[in-house]
């Protein structure tokens, strides 16, 4: 019964995630066909916003793919996808400005961004180790509990749950970081005259579509975390 409930919740969320991903692509494609009023490309936009905000130690580069844009804080690079880099579209400048929003978060010490940066290596390790640790805990619970009477296996299982929880926590912190970067992007684009007030709704649509993917990922991560927790809690209570 619990598993059926889990599926009834998970399946609509997976559908939401697929819809959000498709929405990002379709929205980007629609507004990638619309040139912005300033005729600035994604590269031009990124460079201007970096200069106007006094950022001298971050460079802008072109990378392969589409919607593969990201800010690499360790190498101090804004990597724009081939589709964004040279395009003078509304979609391209919106995505480029979003990445500069992340640069400004780092520069200004935006707290959720700093927390996410700390969580990146923790979440990466936690997501890889969670399931093996949980399985190890189950084995220890089966083979050691009866002989020692100590709940070592249960302790290890809950450590595994905590490791998986770091991924859910990472997604929880990521959402406000992405929303804030989009808010900064909209403001910078208008202030610098890269897009007009009339073009701002189109920019919002591009950035809002991207935000929906993070909402879906967060909900799916939380559902899986609660599922693992309830299963382990039920198992340990029976023991």
How would you describe this structure in keywords?
239 residues, mainly alpha, 3-stranded mixed beta sheet, 7 helices, 3 strands, 76% helix, elongated
Write the layout of secondary structure elements.
Blueprint: H1 2-32, H2 42-52, E1 59-63, E2 70-72, E3 77-81, H3 82-85, H4 90-108, H5 111-148, H6 152-191, H7 200-238
Parallel strand pairs: 1-3
Antiparallel strand pairs: 2-3
Helix pairs in contact: 1-7, 2-4, 4-6, 4-7, 5-6, 6-7
Structural summary, described in words:
The structure is a single chain. By secondary structure, the protein is mainly alpha-helical. It has one domain. The chain contains 7 helices and 3 strands. Strands 1-3-2 form a 3-stranded mixed β-sheet. Strand 2 and strand 3 (77-81) form a beta hairpin. Helix 1 (2-32) packs antiparallel against helix 7. The relative contact order is 0.15.
């Amino acid at each position: 019964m619990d598993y059926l409930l889990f599926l009834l919740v998970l399946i609509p969320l997976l559908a939401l995630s697929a819809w959000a991903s498709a929405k990002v692509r379709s929205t980007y494609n629609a507004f990638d066909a619309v040139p912005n009023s300033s005729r600035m490309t994604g590269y031009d936009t990124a460079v201007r916003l970096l200069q106007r905000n006094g950022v001298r130690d971050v460079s802008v580069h072109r990378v392969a793919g589409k919607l593969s844009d990201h800010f690499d804080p360790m190498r101090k690079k804004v990597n724009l996808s081939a589709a964004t880099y040279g395009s003078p579209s509304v979609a391209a400048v919106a995505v480029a400005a979003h990445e500069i929003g992340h640069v400004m978060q780092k520069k200004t010490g935006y707290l959720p961004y700093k927390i996410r940066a700390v969580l990146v290596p923790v979440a990466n390790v936690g997501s890889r180790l969670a399931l093996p640790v949980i399985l190890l805990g189950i084995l220890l619970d089966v083979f050691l509990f009866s002989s020692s009477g100590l709940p070592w296996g249960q302790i290890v299982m809950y450590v595994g749950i905590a490791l998986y929880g770091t991924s859910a926590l990472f997604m929880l912190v990521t959402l406000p970081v992405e929303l804030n970067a989009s808010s900064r992007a909209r403001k910078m684009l208008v202030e610098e005259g890269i897009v007009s007030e009339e073009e701002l709704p189109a920019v919002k649509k591009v950035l809002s579509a991207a935000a929906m993917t993070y909402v879906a990922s967060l909900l799916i991560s939380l559902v899986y975390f609660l599922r693992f927790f309830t299963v382990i809690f039920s198992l340990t209570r029976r023991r």
